[in-house]
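Reviewers of the previous submission asked for a worked example of the structure-prediction workflow described in the proposal, so we include one complete record here. The input consisted solely of the amino acid sequence. No template or homolog information was supplied to the procedure at any stage.
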Amino acid sequence: MKGFVVHLSKAKNEDMIVTILCAHSIKAYYRFFGARHSILQLGHLIDFEVDGEQSHFMPRLRSLSHFGFEWLYESNRLLMWHNFIKLFEPHLRETEEIHSFYFELLLKAAQKWSKQNPKRIICESYLALLRFEGRLYDTRRCYICEDPIEQELSLMRAYIAAHPACIHAPTLSKKRIDEFFESGKTISFEDNEIEYLYSVVMKGF
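From that input alone, the workflow returned the following structure tokens.
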């Protein structure tokens, strides 16, 4: 099996509980002496086998190997990867079977991570996730006061549009947000605007 490590927690002694997002599942596994294994790091893409899936106890990881990406040794890119991937476990908590979309989204992002600005990749990936989950709202009316939005807006969590005065947040061009929602690309945004879009993502999925 192959999957991304999206959460790690300590068990007794040096054992670990590892949550892995695979193509069709997100599950927690037990790893004896997991703290000793450098492969078990947040965000790593690993290949593994499982013991005891049919037992009453938590299934156990074994035969681990790691698929590396060249950007893993760039501290800034790695930190942003951690920030991004940590959002998946709470979003998909209480779910075991998932659509392949989530694994493919992470894999595509990881493959582009060293070639593009990671914050732009995160913003574009988040938009794709909202669209996939049917949570991408249009920008015609303010979510707070329900009056029409004309030329400028702000974004709440889940990229929900509102009047800047309603939520006391930075202003963005409605036209450019509409273009972003249509194309899925951040190319028209300045870096300071990307910082704002990124900060919205970091509030959680």
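The helical segments are 75-85, 88-91, 101-112, 118-132, 164-167, 174-183, 191-201. We consider this example representative of the routine output the project will generate in years two and three.
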